[in-house]
Specification:
The protein is of the alpha+beta class and 187 residues long. The chain has one domain: Spore Coat Polysaccharide Biosynthesis Protein SpsA, Chain A, CATH 3.90.550. Helices cover 44% and strands 19% of the residues. The chain has helices at 2-9, 28-39, 69-72, 87-90, 102-110, 137-151, 155-175, 177-185, and strands at 14-16, 23-24, 43-51, 57-61, 66-67, 84-86, 117-128. Strands 1, 2, 3, 4, 5, 6 and 7 form a seven-stranded mixed beta sheet that branches. The longest helix has 21 residues, at 155-175. The protein is globular.
């Protein structure tokens, strides 16, 4: 995996991810690192814009003000390209080699032992929404179940309780963005 290869080569104090089809605003790293330093945080993310393949703004997706592992089990509220994380938190941890949702699993792994992640105010990233990308709902749910099962000792016991919540949140995220944004910021 290319992200793990990059993580093996990291020499700086902070790590940020940028997928090839996504975009950052010019001051993303500066703003988020300043927010981290001012608040003594080790893991931050932001809300983000969703853009078309042509780069046109479609909508904004809000993120909760903070997440811990328990809250993140409900849904992946963290866009990969919005993250800045301290190298000290990552340490030797690497993303799991699974076909999809490896970033989600990585966030859950990083948030073990009571660690928290915080939303940095502002929108610093744009996620490019393409035709066919992440559109297979059954496949996505299958990998969500895999993530839950493998991220907690109680994974299989939790699944019947949190799967309906996950499905509801993701229905809002895909079909009722305004409601999703109002709901998420209150989490």
């Amino acid at each position: 995996m290319s992200r793990n290869t990059a993580l093996d080569l990291v020499q700086g104090d902070y790590i940020a991810f940028l997928d090839s089809d996504d975009c950052w605003v010019d001051n993303k790293i500066e703003s988020q690192v300043k927010f981290m330093l001012n608040n003594n945080y080790r893991f931050v993310y932001s809300s983000y814009d969703v853009i078309s393949m042509a780069g046109e703004h479609c909508y904004n997706l809000c993120a909760p003000s903070m997440v811990n592992k328990r809250k993140l089990l409900l849904s992946n509220f963290i866009g990969c390209s919005t993250v800045v994380v301290a190298s000290s938190l990552v340490g030797e941890m690497r993303q799991r080699n699974i076909p999809c949702r490896n970033d989600y699993m990585f966030w859950l792994d990083l948030l073990k032992d009571g660690e928290m992640a915080y939303r940095c105010p502002g929108v610093f990233s744009s996620y490019r929404k393409g035709v066919g990308i992440s559109s297979n709902k059954l496949r996505n749910f299958k990998f969500y179940c895999y993530v839950i099962k493998n991220s907690s000792a109680l994974g299989l016991l939790l699944l019947p309780i949190i799967a309906p919540i996950f499905l509801t949140i993701n229905l809002l995220k895909k079909r009722f963005i305004g409601l999703y944004n109002k709901f998420v910021v209150k989490l």
